Amino acid sequence: MKKRNFIFCAFLIAMLSTTAQNQVTIIDSIFSGSIYRTYRLYIPKSYEVTKSSSLVVDLHGYTSNAEQEQAYSNFKSIADTANFLVVYPNGTKSGTSQFWNAGISPALVNDVAFISELIDHIKAQYTIDLNSVYACGMSNGGFMAHTLACALNYKIAAIASVTGSMFIPQYNTCVPNRVVPVMQIHGTADNTVPYIGNSSMLAIDTLMKFWVKHDQCYPIPSIDSVPNITKADSCTAIHYEYKNGSQGATCELYKIVGGGHSWPGAPFKIAVTNQDFNASEKIWQFFRKYKLNNMLNVPESGNEVIVSMYPNPCIDQLFIEVQQLKSIAIIDITGKVVLQSTQSEMDVQDLAKGIYSVIITTKNGRVVKRLVK
């Protein structure tokens, strides 16, 4: 009887402890790139350890921080209802200003590796569906979201950028390994990241054409005016949707006519802010349509792709058994292709120790597996 009571009490304590951590923000850090990196993690009230939850990575703007981004994007009530966790990482500092290395310079901190490690860290502690991990951001954080679409698309199912763009050098080198659904929200009167672009960053229309072409969407969008329910906000919104992309991908643009460098629907105003719709709600409605496994492993001919990869972990020779092999690419944690082959046996002994993604392309589709070296 005493033993039964002890087991019951232990179970009760565990359940209470799980409940107590819901609807709270946890402040923590991980060691990445030889430094400690901090983040804030919001646990929604609907979170249950027995059910998988989605994860949204929300990235702050230049000079901002995780705490400000959490208040500004205001995902809390949406996450509580839809049951997804939101992590707000902090960038590193250049002088006194916090920023993201969104394709700025390889000599700077590796933020792609940090976000990858952060996703793994959260997965180790919470019940996360790794097929439902998404990234969004404001301004420099929006640039970083596009960087993740270029370099971490084997972990990020879809991205959304608010007032961000892509620097021209990254545009010239961005070759994603799969289709990436993209939402862009941008004001035509944005003086910080101009809608028409400049000598260092892409115009938003050019940015959309890049993703529409990459995702093989129909190039002529459906266009709808967002109802102008708040005339006092001094701007209007137009929604462009590029449909029928490869593997069901779409690209969407909310063009805020007269809008500034701001997050539509934000609870406080930092520039001309559209209040005709809530950007966070639209972002989640967009994200929830996509699962990473559906974007990575959709057979082209309707046949299931069955792959055996061994040994794993691997020291020297990696063997892959699959029918109708076309190519194999091994990608490091930064998104760089470090090995490529059309053969089923690969020599990996020169690879550094770490975790890699192996993209196996066949005539029937594509599969992504994780390799430990």
Which second-level CATH architecture of the largest domain applies? 3-Layer(aba) Sandwich
Summed up, the helix count is 9
Q: First CA to last CA: what distance?
A: 49 Å
* Poorly predicted ranges: 1-20, 297-302
How is the quaternary structure best described?
single chain
SS-derived structural category? alpha/beta
Secondary structure: number of strands? 19
Strand order of the largest sheet: 1-2-4-3-7-8-9-12-11-10
SSE order in H/E notation?
HEEEHHEEEHEHEHEHEEEHHEEEEEEE
Topology:
Layout: H1 2-20, E1 24-32, E2 35-43, E3 53-59, H2 66-73, H3 76-82, E4 84-89, E5 92-94, E6 97-99, H4 111-125, E7 128-138, H5 140-151, E8 158-162, H6 168-173, E9 182-187, H7 204-214, E10 222-226, E11 236-242, E12 251-257, H8 279-287, H9 292-296, E13 308-310, E14 317-321, E15 325-331, E16 337-341, E17 345-347, E18 355-362, E19 365-372
Parallel strand pairs: 3-4, 3-7, 7-8, 8-9, 9-12
Antiparallel strand pairs: 1-2, 2-4, 5-6, 10-11, 11-12, 13-14, 14-17, 15-16, 15-18, 18-19
Short description, anyone?
With 373 residues, the chain is α/β, with parallel strands linked by helices.
Overview of this structure, please?
Helices cover 25% and strands 31% of the residues. With 373 residues, it is an alpha/beta fold. It contains nine helices and 19 strands.
Index terms:
single chain, 19 strands, Immunoglobulin-like, 373 residues, four-stranded antiparallel β-sheet, 9 helices, Rossmann fold, alpha/beta
